[in-house]
């Protein structure tokens, strides 16, 4: 292997794999090294769709960094699971496979904030069509009145196979009846750019196999793309303010002629930059790291969707309804809550934020049902069935942090999401859990309900008590190196370049100016497609070239 490449990409998650593939597959044939701290993730059993609720949380899994937050003392002192994928594919190798693209208004707001129309919905939709290989078939034809996407809105020859799953729980259609009985809207395609209403998620599972960024974008790619696994990057090497290479965990130096691209994800990207001497001055000084460049906002604007789970216990009707069906898609929908927009907490928000929240496609919460009982801390009994639901906070206003615990790159970053520290977030969660329980109390379920899992009554106090003790991350962490127009409030510009540095970009969910109202793996792919197009244009890398990929495990 050469010790010098045109581009070095640090991190082979959703974004890193896409960028590496796209810029390698061009006529100018640049030399590219994709470096990944984890392994090659070639275990076929771990790519099976059935395991997606287990692999993510396996304590000794080689696919998981197994991060935890600091104790959330403003809640009940819990350390919250912050699992992140490790190895080729990153978190696409361990996530729940759900695909949700979110509101068109999110992308238009992103474009407004960063003053770049490239991020508007029309362009995001074009990128999504490049990404998607959409399979519209559904397992229960009678439910077509609820699930009926416009095929023209989706790509049919992209890299990521999207399906509605191979088999569905027989009574899954009852959730749509419950939504209608509750006076709420159903949605035939939650991935149309308007997610408002209850619909059915797509999943990145095709013919029983999970589709990851590695299994899709790194298959049969050019020989000018080399991949180095099991090799963490300890720091980026700078010459003055220009990135010229990286140092690996075993002390090797690899140089970049053109750029170093950091795609470590919202937790590891700020850690790598800080270890390299880039970040808030006080954080670098605290750990005795020589400053290369002060980037005051790095790691200070972490956002994520937290959720609280509830459920109803019902009489079992058949064995099919007791057994878990782990390849099922998840019914999910996004909803506006009038009670939130009538609240004092909403009225206290700045005017631009209130205007955004009033946009047609922007929700207050996500409601996802038919979740595993474990997510609601419920243990199944043989003569019952359980319907669990999670209420996910959208548009959080709380800001968390990612900092260093140590200057040792082997030590995990210090993660403090500060969930629900903002009054608006608490109000949304209280109203959202109340609404979720109302849906689960609809007549279609009430007739068989024998118990409830959740708040003991409908009061704010009891709902908040339940939320405080039953709160999780949805693993949509974002925004730690967010995009903007000034170093005073952001870390990168709309071309993904770090303010004040040369030849160094961040391309991953770190750059989101706010956490999107979706499931963020879709955003990670869109970010990478957009960034690759900007890089190809800037360096005039031009047209495609075919070839084969080379996998390297050692230097």
UniProtKB/TrEMBL annotation:
Entry keywords, A to Z: FAD, Flavoprotein
InterPro entries: FAD/NAD-bd_sf (IPR036188), GMC_OxRdtase (IPR012132), GMC_OxRdtase_N (IPR000172), GMC_OxRtase_C (IPR007867)
Catalytic residues of the enzyme: 476, 519
A GO molecular function held by the record: oxidoreductase activity, acting on CH-OH group of donors
Positions of FAD binding: 233, 475-476
Family annotation (Gene3D superfamilies): FAD/NAD(P)-binding domain, Glucose Oxidase, domain 3
Record field: transmembrane: none
Occurrences of domain Glucose-methanol-choline oxidoreductase N-terminal (ranges): 85-108, 265-279
Sections of the chain in a coiled coil: none
Source taxon at top rank: Eukaryota
Cofactor(s) the protein requires to work: FAD
Pfam families: GMC_oxred_C (PF05199), GMC_oxred_N (PF00732)
Protein family per UniProt: Belongs to the GMC oxidoreductase family.
Designated name of the protein: Glucose-methanol-choline oxidoreductase N-terminal domain-containing protein
